[in-house]
Amino acid sequence: MANRAGRLSFTPNYHRINRTPVRSADVKALAFELGFSFVGVAKAERMKEEERRLEDWLNQGRHGTMRWMENHFDKRVDPTKLVPGAKTVVSLMYNYFPEDDAPSREGPKISRYAYGQDYHHVIRAKLKELVWRIEELIGAPLDGRVFVDSAPVMERDWAKRAGVGWTGKNTLLINPKAGSYFFLAELISDLDVAPDQQIKDYCGTCTACIDACPTEAISPQGYLLDGSKCISYLTIELREAIPEEFRGRMEGWAFGCDICQEVCPWNRFSKPHAEPAFLPHPDLPAMTPGETREMTEEVFRKVFQKSAVKRTKFVGLRRNIDFLNPPS
């Protein structure tokens, strides 16, 4: 079970017979209290359609150098392989849209999701607290695991199945009431609650994200992303030198990219988050483009010590900035 120290343990199935019945609405209410904006439930089962799509995507090499995506294929498409005995996948959305987007107005730009503290740690703590509260509610241990962009979980597909949004032409999860600036997280467990209905796709004939992508990473028809061309991949996942074919096409992005979200009409409904941990470091909004370009490793460690940006390390961010601004 979960506790305030944040550990999950696995428990024998006989505990299920002693549980207090719980409704989907009860679980959602607990999640809302912890700051999650939207919550949905899907049945834990093998995703056959998504399985075929993922296999094709990998076979086409659209994942670039992210070879880890080829691993644990069965677990990616079947949550019962990842969490034996799982009955439901609870998908949760946590808002990260900032009130002040100064770091993304001028280059070198930082993706909005990385302004504050590393979301993995912040949201995982909330997920563990959620499990603890569910266990209090049902009066027995819960057999399951929590995930936030971790392990082989196809989070966007599960969020779509859980009815909290649809997969847009930019391949991001879009909620019709609040847009796409959300972190996705999951609780996969033996909790037995009714699943939610999926919602329809509202992208319609819009091609804003396709037209705006400077590296043509989104297919002309949408719904298919060539990860090896995506600016987020080039500035975060790629460990090698950025290919010369992308020089002059990065539009100032040094870590991640928000272009396909910035132009998405549904993000007119985005509202600023209320999470203190996601506020930017005080020095980040104040940095001029020149100061960012001349950033030292000492400044990098000070500003990004708790941010997801630290994933690139100083040498990675320096590479990205230099690629945007080659020596004359």
TrEMBL record:
Its main location: cytoplasm. Its cofactor is cob(II)alamin; [4Fe-4S] cluster. GO terms for molecular function: epoxyqueuosine reductase activity. [4Fe-4S] cluster 2 binds at residues 213, 230, 257, 260. Pathway: tRNA modification; tRNA-queuosine biosynthesis. It comes from the Bacteria. Cob(II)alamin binds at residues 76, 149, 167, 170, 173, 184, 232, 257-258. It is found in: Cytoplasm. Its EC number is 1.17.99.6. Binds 2 [4Fe-4S] clusters per monomer. The keyword Ribonucleoprotein does not apply. Keywords: 4Fe-4S, Cobalamin, Cobalt, Cytoplasm, Iron, Iron-sulfur, Metal-binding, Oxidoreductase, Queuosine biosynthesis, tRNA processing. Residues 193-223 form the 4Fe-4S ferredoxin-type domain. It is an enzyme of class 1 (oxidoreductase). Pfam families: Fer4_16, QueG_DUF1730. [4Fe-4S] cluster 1 binds at residues 203, 206, 209, 264. The active site is at 149 (proton donor). SUPFAM superfamilies: alpha-helical ferredoxin (SSF46548). Gene3D superfamilies: 3.30.70.20. InterPro entries: 4Fe4S_Fe-S-bd (IPR017896), 4Fe4S_Fe_S_CS (IPR017900), QueG (IPR004453), QueG_DUF1730 (IPR013542). Coiled coil: none annotated. Monomer. Belongs to the QueG family. Catalyzes the conversion of epoxyqueuosine (oQ) to queuosine (Q), which is a hypermodified base found in the wobble positions of tRNA(Asp), tRNA(Asn), tRNA(His) and tRNA(Tyr). This is Epoxyqueuosine reductase.
